[in-house]
Amino acid sequence: MGSQVSKPLEFSKIAASPDTAAAPAKPAPPATPGAPTSPAEHNWLKTCWSCRVLSGLGLMGAGGYVYWEARKPMKMGYPPGPWTITKMVIGISIATWGIVVMTHPKGKAYHQ
């Protein structure tokens, strides 16, 4: 009995045929540059508006939280140190990343 986690891992050895072991497999180039070669490469951020909004707002919220948490000591009168300023910059960067995800997803501006 026991769960899958408590059982030891079993590694099985698979013997490779001599012709595949000598030369590494090279994938075929895509027919047109930039075209997805399989459904697994389809970018959901390009087509799913609700996914972009949810991801973007989540990143903006996380960035805002990091920024405002870094500002707390400054509001209490402590002078900002290098680490405080670094956290503020990281928070702004995360929030900006969220804006980019919402407005301009990866690959949208690539035109041939």
TrEMBL record:
<keyword id="KW-0472">Membrane</keyword>
<feature type="transmembrane region" description="Helical">
    <location>
        <begin position="49"/>
        <end position="68"/>
    </location>
</feature>
<dbReference type="GO" id="GO:0005743">
    <property type="term" value="C:mitochondrial inner membrane"/>
</dbReference>
<keyword id="KW-0812">Transmembrane</keyword>
<dbReference type="Pfam" id="PF15055">
    <property type="entry name" value="DMAC1_Dmo2"/>
</dbReference>
<dbReference type="GO" id="GO:0032981">
    <property type="term" value="P:mitochondrial respiratory chain complex I assembly"/>
</dbReference>
<dbReference type="InterPro" id="IPR053117">
    <property type="entry name" value="DMAC_Protein"/>
</dbReference>
<feature type="transmembrane region" description="Helical">
    <location>
        <begin position="80"/>
        <end position="102"/>
    </location>
</feature>
<feature type="domain" description="Distal membrane-arm assembly complex protein 1-like">
    <location>
        <begin position="48"/>
        <end position="93"/>
    </location>
</feature>
<keyword id="KW-1133">Transmembrane helix</keyword>
<feature type="region of interest" description="Disordered">
    <location>
        <begin position="19"/>
        <end position="40"/>
    </location>
</feature>
<protein>
    <submittedName>
        <fullName>Distal membrane arm assembly component 1</fullName>
    </submittedName>
</protein>
<dbReference type="InterPro" id="IPR028036">
    <property type="entry name" value="DMAC1-like_dom"/>
</dbReference>
